Amino acid sequence: MDHGSFKTRSTYCTLVNRSDTCKYICYFHTKAGMFYIGLTNASEVWRTDFTEEALTEHVKKFALKSTEDYISNIRSSCGNGSTSVFVQEDGAVLQLGMVSITLPRLGEPEGRAELRDLLFKMADSLTQQDTTGGPSSFSPGKSQFRRNTGFEPRTQQNGPTVTVKKRLPGDSLINPGSRKKRPATGVAFDDNDEV
Length: 195
Fold this sequence. Notes:
It is a single chain. With 195 residues, this protein is an alpha+beta fold. The chain has helices at 52-61, 67-79, 108-132; strands at residues 11-16, 23-31, 34-40, 45-50, 83-87, 91-96, 99-104. A 4-stranded antiparallel sheet has the order 1-2-3-4, sandwiched between helices. A hairpin with a 4-residue loop joins strand 3 (34-40) and strand 4. The protein is elongated. GO terms for molecular function: molecular adaptor activity. InterPro entries: PAXX, PAXX_N.
């Protein structure tokens, strides 16, 4: 398996646990020749590390061709709701159909540092996508061509401003200053009703 082709950028997905509907962030990244799979509920962090050899064995065990296929399968399982998380005292088990991944719990200082790094990696990823105009994986409903102009100065109009008066109900379209003439209505008297 060729790990040199594996992109070093981090990948994220969210999942909702089938058993208790708790939300988690599942993340993958490489650093110094190691591949990390992590899981967090924003207060606790579970992570496992793979060397290239261990990752090759792990991916072959599930009859996949590459690390990208492995990540893609995990992300699709997380997205379709077929994922379960079993939190234990010393770790968590991520159950993805027939695949289960055991993730040891990180201690207090290491877990806090991991959460901080994860937060900044996600923010950097979003900033880079906004700068390059790439599609955002976190908000698929938004158009990639729409720019957020909330922090940009507003432009001034240089021409004369024309105010358009709102047409009230009953006003004439042809002569806007006058009201439509309606036929007079009166009271209909029937002689038959009198006795």
